[in-house]
Design brief:
The structure is a single chain. The protein has 358 residues and is α+β, with helices and mostly antiparallel strands. Helices cover 22% and strands 34% of the residues. The protein has helices at residues 43-50, 99-109, 119-125, 141-153, 171-188, 199-205, 223-231, 330-335, and strands at residues 9-17, 20-28, 32-36, 58-63, 66-70, 75-76, 84-87, 159-163, 192-196, 208-213, 216-222, 242-249, 254-257, 260-263, 274-280, 285-287, 298-309, 314-319, 323-328, 343-348, 354-357. The longest helix has 18 residues, at 171-188. The structure holds adenosine-5'-diphosphate.
């Protein structure tokens, strides 16, 4: 069944803020949906309307089939009545409360009979048990965001709204938090709306994306279609696209991702440990024949699923066990005659892989 058949959010709304006007509609499924677009496009404003924190001038918002805002029906339900949780870019933790107190605050907001997520188990899952007695200003950016996520999830929300939750983090921590977000979704099944201006994060997390530009919906569809759009325009952000995988360190010091082993520099990570491995789309090469003499330690067989060629970039999606997104030039696409169902070798160096915990 198409994810979009069962909308968690169904909205059609308009709001004017000074010179800025937002006019957006969409139907979001119970998966992870991204709201993507450049700075100033109206992403945060849309999220605030969906959260019930800002009242649109006109239109409606339905949450799980229930009207929470309607200008014609004169409905305006308070945000706490439909149990959504928000996570912001800077975490917004209470500075005078410890990590434990921040998370307990979230937990206690929820009536006892609706508390389905155990905070102790959640803290173990997000690997923050060691931080419980610390104050937010002693935490690293990545730890703060994990705690902010825990505080939101501890409320057992029916929907998690995330407003650029990794934007202020460096690339390693960003990947770590994105990976935790994905795992939280898989484990607890909470639908998420993920606001971002980073294609990399959107590709790692979401299956559907709504693209906003200057207050208008430019497109809404599968994330893979978004790549084609980005390849052909500079207006929406094309940052470094990362492939992100959760794996386990093997006895021989490789990383097992699904059925394949990837050679990487695992450093102090121990066999059996869960890690996130990331590799930039531009650090991967494709070849039609298996190369004999090459320094790259990783040579995987794969099949091209899809190729998107634009004026500014080209991307190939290759199934090699996990799926890899590979950035290449349009010349390379032509020279190799890359298209769907072509068998290729996926090549990358062990040093191109960045490993983080979790
Ligand atoms: P994004 O999240 O995509 O960066 P925002 O939703 O934060 O975009 O902002 C969209 C536009 O609305 C911006 O031009 C911003 O300056 C404007 N804006 C946001 N809030 C207000 C407000 N309360 N009053 C006037 N303008 C606002």
């Amino acid at each position: 069944m198409d994810e979009r058949d069962t909308p968690v959010l169904d909205f059609d709304l308009r709001i004017r803020l000074g010179d800025f006007a937002l006019d957006a509609s969409g139907k979001f499924s119970n998966g992870i949906t991204a709201v993507f677009g450049p700075s100033g496009a109206g992403k945060s404003t849309l999220l605030a309307c969906l959260a019930g924190m800002v009242t649109p001038d006109d239109g409606y918002v339905r949450f799980d089939g229930e009207t929470i805002f309607s200008s014609t029906g004169r409905v305006r339900r308070p945000p706490q009545s439909f149990r959504t949780a928000m996570v912001f870019q800077d975490g917004m933790l209470f500075p005078h409360k410890t990590v434990r107190q921040n998370i307990e605050y979230g937990y206690r907001l929820t009536p006892p009979d609706l508390r389905v997520i155990d905070p102790d188990e959640l803290c173990r899952f997000l690997q923050i048990q060691g931080l419980l007695n610390r104050f937010p200003d002693t935490l690293s950016g990545g730890e703060r965001q994990r705690v902010a996520l825990a505080r939101g999830v501890a409320t057992s929300p029916r929907l998690l709204l995330l407003d650029e939750p990794v934007a202020s983090l460096d690339i390693r921590l960003r990947n770590e938090v994105v990976s935790y977000l994905k795992q939280v979704h898989e484990r607890y099944g909470i639908p998420m709306v993920y606001v971002s201006h980073s294609l990399s994060d959107v590709m790692a997390l979401a299956r559907f994306a709504l693209v906003l530009d200057q207050g208008r919906v430019k497109s809404f569809g599968p994330v893979v279609d978004l790549v084609a759009e980005v390849a052909s325009t500079t207006r929406i952000g094309r940052d470094d696209i990362d492939n992100l995988y959760v794996g386990t360190v093997t006895e021989s010091g490789a990383i097992r991702i699904g059925d394949i082993d990837v050679v990487a520099h695992v450093g102090d990570y121990q066999p059996g440990q869960r890690v996130t491995a990331s590799i930039s789309a531009s650090d991967i090469m494709l070849a039609l024949q298996r190369p004999d003499a090459i320094s790259a330690r990783n040579i995987l067989r794969g099949t091209v699923q899809r190729v998107e060629t634009g004026e500014y970039a080209a991307f190939a999606f290759v199934d090699a066990g996990p799926e890899f997104v590979v950035e290449l030039t349009s010349d390379a696409v032509e020279t190799l005659n890359l298209k769907k169902d072509v068998d290729v070798y996926v090549l990358f160096k062990s040093s191109s892989i960045t490993i983080t915990a979790g």
